[in-house]
From TrEMBL:
Presence of the UniProt keyword Transmembrane in the record: yes
SUPFAM superfamilies: ATPase domain of HSP90 chaperone/DNA topoisomerase II/histidine kinase, TPR-like
Reaction equation(s) it catalyzes: ATP + protein L-histidine = ADP + protein N-phospho-L-histidine
PANTHER family found in the cross-reference section: ETHYLENE RESPONSE SENSOR PROTEIN, TWO-COMPONENT SYSTEM SENSOR PROTEIN
Name the record gives this protein: histidine kinase
Species assigned in the record: Chitinophaga pinensis (strain ATCC 43595 / DSM 2588 / LMG 13176 / NBRC 15968 / NCIMB 11800 / UQM 2034)
Domain of life: Bacteria
GO molecular function, one term: ATP binding
EC number: 2.7.13.3
């Protein structure tokens, strides 16, 4: 039976690289709770990466899951920007690569995995390096021979690193992937070496889901012509899958490969049965690739039964579903089309596919598994086209490849074709030699086939024998039961009437007692429910009255508070107007300046009460908006400040009114001093205003300028103005720390703790 498309498609379905490994034992909610409790940056980074990886490993490709994964990856990257630990940076890049590959963003994924590998090269982290090597391997295709070789190299290197790290489970997975890749390449001996190692490691770790390994071992045995071994492993894979209650697409793969083995053994009916079971699973999952792959079995059966028209019809339907087949599928399609057209005696149509196969063969390595498909179809075509020299040449190539990869069945059929070509060319000694080789190898395969048949019959015998033993035990139990029934029949008959009467009387009495008891309980329950309902109704009425009163009091309280703020603001405005009026009658510059500064202070406090009056929250002041409006007011009051630039950097801070008033006055004094004294007339400058958290609930208020600073020899603490004294007093009120320094202009800094409202 033709195995190429069938085997490779199911490798993609069940084995490479999407075959899910065991999920982490810790669930995402548990990790998230641990993250919330973590107090260190290192712990937060580690848990954020673990959560991101858990989201990436979730089945399917949910956009929501991927968004969550990227969110936690960004969080880990941001935290690591402070710690700068190379291992966490490499781990982040590794997980970014996995996430990008899941989303189909291969360019971004490759860049991330290359970066992770470069970082880990300088570190001694074998487990992390192994993960990166495995992920790098996933970016290479099995359909391109050069990429397949690189993929194998990466998986082999990863297995070594996992072994150094002592991670047996991941080492087994890496060996399994390596063996599967060798299987794709047609290198069966290397594949068996790694798969047997995988089986040993899996058993060492106590894993029970070994059906995938058994299935691959059986497939390779069948490919090498050892159908007995192939059938044994296939049945073992099926038994293990049933014990594990595996009904996934992997079971579809196992059944389909068993169908191939049984077909090669000549058991066509059972081969069809297993193929139909496999197709049923593929249809259940609506997996187009699996459906097409299983359908190829029927094409091979049609060709063997000399029904090329049916085979061609089914093949054309499959071709219509393949929009852009990869190279291995093109080989399978072309070789089977040649077989169909040759059997239909339409050699001109078959010839159309020969040049493409010759080109494909020339671009592949000499001992590639796919060459056996190409050479076999070309030999068939050239013999029917009576081009016997070409047929003999490809027979020689086919024999060399089959010997190299151990494909005995293909080698036997090739010797028969070679015999026909040599006979047609008149090369009778070679024809006789090749016919002898065919008979020897065919007899060997016949013995292997019979051994496989015996193995299958032995398995069937074991099942039948087990069923017979169970049936015999059941018969013995039934016989003993019947004898006991006969012995007790008389006694039961004598007691039957009495027991029925007694039982009936007791049951009737119990029913009466239960009925009366239920009636009493129901009556008492109804009374209690009625009393409760009345109590609840009265409580609801009382509660509703209290709620109405409370809401009214709250409305009155809010109105009164707003009215107080409004009146305070109006009173401050009146005071400011009085100060302005008083200033009109003064001619002393110091007095005018003092009144002006007092007016600015009143304006700062008035602005706070205006904010409270207009805000829905009458306890807190939004310092971002307040600061900007205060600076805007100062600009309007002083005028002509176009040459000054205010660099404002205020955090989203909301202060209680008890702190907002002193902070606003400090801001007013510091800004007024900077505007008046920092810069000579018309000189450009910058005034910096910031209010930021330095740690939790600890704020730093800073007003600085880029001016010329204090005069030479000026001591701000001994010669300070009233504004400086006011700032010191207000800082004490905030229970903060005041720092005034010159670098290069003047900087006023007040550090204080934020009060909670």
């Amino acid at each position: 039976m033709n195995r190429l498309l069938l085997v490779l498609h199911f490798i993609l379905l069940g084995i490479l690289p999407g075959m899910a490994r065991q999920q982490y034992g810790v669930s995402i909610p548990v990790l998230q709770r641990s993250l919330e409790k973590s107090a260190t940056d290192t712990g937060k980074i580690r848990l954020s990466l673990a959560i991101a990886e858990a989201y990436i490993r979730l089945p399917g490709n949910s956009q929501k899951d991927m968004e969550s994964a990227f969110l936690y990856l960004k969080q880990a990257t941001s935290l690591n920007a402070h710690t700068r630990i190379p291992r966490w940076e490499a781990r982040s890049d590794y997980l970014y690569a996995k996430a990008y590959r899941e989303k189909g963003l291969y360019t971004e994924g490759k860049a991330a995995i290359v970066k992770a590998r470069q970082i880990l090269t300088a570190l001694n982290c074998p487990g992390d390096m192994a993960d990166v090597l495995m992920e790098t391997g996933h970016y290479y295709s099995i359909d391109v021979e050069a990429e397949l070789k690189e993929k194998i190299h990466l998986y082999e290197s990863a297995a070594i690193q996992y072994k150094i790290a002592g991670n047996t489970a991941e080492e087994a997975y890496a060996c399994k992937m390596t063996g599967d890749c060798y299987h794709c390449w047609g290198k069966y001996d290397e594949a068996l070496q790694y798969l047997n190692k995988t089986l040993t490691l899996y058993k060492k770790t106590g894993r029970k889901d070994l059906q995938g390994i058994y299935d691959l071992l059986g497939t390779i045995a069948t490919g090498k012509g050892d159908y007995s071994q192939g059938l044994t492993y296939g049945l073992l894979a099926l038994k293990t899958a049933e014990e594990q209650k595996d009904s996934s697409l992997q079971l579809c793969t196992i059944l389909n490969r068993l169908s191939v083995t049984l077909y090669e053994l000549g058991d066509y009916q059972h081969a069809l049965d297993f193929a139909e079971r496999s197709l049923k699973i593929a249809n259940h999952y609506k997996d187009t690739t699996a459906i097409l792959t299983v359908s190829t079995n029927f094409i091979t059966i049609y060709l063997r039964d000399n029904q090329p028209a049916k085979a061609l019809e089914l093949l054309n339907r499959i071709v219509e579903l393949y929009k852009e087949p990869v190279q291995k599928d093109r080989i399978w399609i072309s070789t089977n089309l040649i077989r169909c057209y040759v059997q239909l005696q339409q050699l001109d149509k078959a010839a159309a596919f020969v040049p493409g196969l010759l080109t494909t063969s020339a671009n592949m390595s000499k001992y590639n598994y796919y060459q056996t498909m190409i050479y076999s179809s070309l030999v068939m075509y050239y013999i029917h086209a009576k081009q016997f020299e070409k047929a003999a040449g490809f027979c020689a190539l086919q024999a060399e490849v089959c010997k190299q990869i151990g494909q005995l069945n293909g080698l036997s059929h090739n010797y028969l074709q070679w015999f026909r070509a040599d006979s047609a060319l008149g090369n009778y000694p070679a024809a006789i030699r090749h016919y002898k080789d065919y008979k020897v190898l065919n007899d060997s395969l016949f013995r292997i086939s019979k051994a496989g048949e015996i193995a299958r019959l032995q398995v069937q015998y074991d099942f039948d024998q087990k069923n017979k033993d169970i049936t015999l035990k059941q018969q013995n139990i039934e016989l003993l039961t019947r004898q006991g029934l006969l012995q007790r029949a008389a006694l039961k008959e004598a007691r039957l009437t009495r027991n029925i009467i007694i039982f009936g009387a007791v049951m009737l009495l119990l029913l009466l007692i239960l009925s009366y008891n239920r009636y009493q309980l129901k009556q008492a329950s109804n009374k209690r429910l009625q009393q409760k309902q009345e109590e609840i109704y009265l409580q609801n009425q009382s509660l509703q009255g209290l709620i109405d009163v409370q809401e009214k009091l709250l409305e009155e309280k809010e109105w009164l508070v707003k009215e107080i703020h409004h009146r305070v603001r109006n009173n401050l405005q009146i005071v400011m107007s009085l100060l302005n009026t008083q200033a009109a009658y003064l001619h002393n510059s110091d007095a005018l300046e003092a009144i002006s500064e007092s007016r600015y202070r009143m304006q700062a406090i008035s602005l706070i009460h205006q904010k409270l009056y207009l805000s829905a929250n009458m306890a807190l002041i939004d310092m971002q908006n307040y600061t900007r409006e205060l600076i805007a007011g100062l600009k309007d009051n002083f005028g002509g400040l176009q040459q000054l630039y205010f660099d404002i950097n205020i955090a989203p801070v909301k202060l209680d009114v008890s702190q907002a008033v002193p902070v606003s006055l400090i801001l007013n004094e510091a800004l007024t001093n900077a505007i008046k004294y920092a810069f000579p007339k018309n000189e450009n400058g910058i005034i910096y205003v910031s209010l930021q958290y330095t740690e939790e609930a600890q704020l730093l208020l800073r007003v600085a300028d880029s001016g010329h600073g204090f005069p030479a020899g000026f001591d701000v603490y001994s010669h300070g103005t009233m504004g400086i004294r006011l700032i010191e007093t207000l800082t004490e009120q905030l229970e903060g720390i005041l720092e005034i320094k010159e670098a290069p202009g003047v900087s006023v800094q007040v550090s204080f703790k934020q009060q909670k409202s």
